[in-house]
Amino acid sequence: MKNQSVESNSLDKFENTWIIFIFPYKGIGGVSTLFLKLAEIISNKHELKIGVVDYKDGFMSKNLETNKKLKFFEYSDSQILHLPEDAYLVFQSMTPWSIFRNLKFKNNQNLFFWNLHPFNLLVFFPFFRKYFEKNLKLSIFVSKTLLFFYRKKIFNFINILYKKKSIFFMDDCNYSVTKRFYNLTIKKRLLPIGTIIPERNLFSLNENINDNEINAGWLGRAVGFKESILLKILKDLNEFAFAENTKINFIIISDQIDNLDLSSFKNINIKFIGNINPKELSKVVSLNLDIFFAMGLSAFEVASMGIPTVLLDFSYAKIPDSYRYKFLFESDRYSAGELISNHSKFLGKTMFEILKEIQKKDNSLSLKTYKFTKDNHNIEIIAEKFLSFLFQSSAKYEDFSKKNILKGSMAYTITNLIKNKK
Question: What pTM did the predictor assign?
Answer without folding.
Answer: 0.91
